[in-house]
């Protein structure tokens, strides 16, 4: 729906290994459908491919497209292995195409306000910060999927699938280099899956700032995500996509005149998915750098992979260690 709504883009084809899904979407949006992504790409030769796939397929399909000169916009996460995320970036640069990764919550009204205040120095230095994600993912959520709840296809559970957006938001707002991650992960509420449904820990930045995170997906409902930042000049409380900055006070919330209907999908998407997609196409046409450059998304991927490494190996993991294994990506 975002593509159909964008005057800069034309939806020419959709692809899914499950023909009933592919055919239904093709009929809904008046385009062709394919069951094999390579056949679709080779026949249609599109300018852009959107990846809305199981996580493990993101680098496989992205690199296939990039090597053929096709721009790629992938849903989060970039990949389930950091080396694959780096390969996606390296291949995009080698073939002069634009790779993007969706982190639409950076467009939230609250995020935009707090980022602006931080950049202008009005909040002062961040002294401490914490985030909480307490959502509900039932056993049915996992049994209805052939890839969710697996290490080899999903790459994890509550961190890589649910909390990643909030962790990206806080890392984006802090905007500093990470020193180390110290995390614990566990499966406490889902006997039928292998991956974690609970995670907590700290992210320490090189400035000395400590941020804490807590995430579970066995709560009774999807509670609004929360971020709190104790800054020198204000206390920031972010709740869902709104923010309170307590020194005046200031409150900003979603513009009630902004709306976008994606169809029968998740209501909490809001209007920001379409904003990022529109920005991506605008930048393809103008040659400008996307609002969310993929190198920034990669830093979040670096953090997420460090969380898993720390949780699995039960030890502190530095970002330098991650970069020695994979290499660095320059912004």
3D structure, described in words:
By secondary structure, the protein is of the alpha/beta class. 35% of the residues lie in helices and 21% in strands. The chain has 10 helices and 14 strands. The protein has helices at 19-29, 37-44, 58-66, 82-94, 109-119, 139-143, 158-174, 272-286, 294-313, 319-326; strands at 13-15, 32-34, 48-51, 71-74, 99-101, 126-134, 178-186, 198-205, 210-216, 226-231, 235-239, 242-246, 250-252, 317-318. It has a 9-stranded mixed β-sheet. The protein has a 3-stranded parallel β-sheet with strand order 3-4-5, with helices on one face. Helix 7 crosses helix 9 (294-313). The radius of gyration is 20 Å and the shape is globular. The relative contact order is 0.16.
Task: Please give the structural blueprint.
Layout: E1 13-15, H1 19-29, E2 32-34, H2 37-44, E3 48-51, H3 58-66, E4 71-74, H4 82-94, E5 99-101, H5 109-119, E6 126-134, H6 139-143, H7 158-174, E7 178-186, E8 198-205, E9 210-216, E10 226-231, E11 235-239, E12 242-246, E13 250-252, H8 272-286, H9 294-313, E14 317-318, H10 319-326
Parallel strand pairs: 1-2, 3-4, 4-5, 6-9
Antiparallel strand pairs: 6-10, 7-8, 7-14, 8-9, 10-11, 11-12, 12-13
Helix pairs in contact: 3-4, 4-9, 7-9
């Amino acid at each position: 729906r975002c593509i159909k709504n964008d005057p800069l883009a034309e939806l020419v084809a959709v692809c899914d290994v499950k023909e009933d899904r592919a055919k239904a979407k093709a009929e809904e949006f008046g385009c062709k459908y394919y069951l094999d992504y390579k056949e679709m790409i080779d026949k249609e030769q599109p300018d852009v491919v959107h990846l809305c796939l199981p996580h493990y397929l993101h680098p496989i399909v992205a690199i296939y497209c990039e090597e053929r000169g096709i721009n790629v916009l992938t849903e989060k996460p970039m990949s389930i292995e950091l080396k694959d995320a780096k390969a996606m970036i390296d291949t995009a640069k080698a073939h002069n195409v634009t790779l993007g990764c969706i982190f639409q919550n950076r467009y939230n009204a609250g995020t935009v306000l707090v980022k602006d205040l931080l950049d202008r120095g009005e909040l002062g230095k961040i002294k401490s910060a914490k985030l909480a994600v307490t959502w509900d993912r039932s056993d049915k959520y996992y049994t209805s999927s052939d890839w969710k709840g697996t290490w080899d296809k999903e790459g994890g559970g509550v961190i890589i699938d649910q909390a990643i957006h909030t962790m990206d938001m806080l890392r984006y707002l802090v905007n500093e280099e990470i020193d180390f991650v110290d995390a614990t992960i566990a499966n406490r509420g889902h006997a039928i899956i292998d991956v974690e449904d609970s995670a907590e820990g700290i992210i320490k930045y090189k400035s000395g700032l400590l941020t804490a995170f807590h995430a579970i997906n066995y709560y009774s409902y999807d509670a609004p995500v929360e971020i709190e930042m104790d800054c020198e000049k204000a206390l920031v409380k972010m709740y869902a996509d709104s923010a309170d900055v307590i020194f005046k006070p200031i409150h900003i919330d979603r513009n009630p005149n902004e709306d976008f209907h994606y169809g029968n999908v998740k209501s909490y998407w809001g209007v920001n998915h379409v904003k990022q997609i529109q920005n991506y196409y605008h930048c393809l046409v103008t040659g400008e750098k996307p609002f969310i450059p993929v190198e920034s998304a990669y830093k979040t991927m670096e953090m997420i992979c460090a969380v898993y490494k720390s949780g699995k190996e039960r030890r502190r993991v530095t970002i330098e260690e991650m970069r020695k294994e994979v290499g660095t990506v320059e912004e």
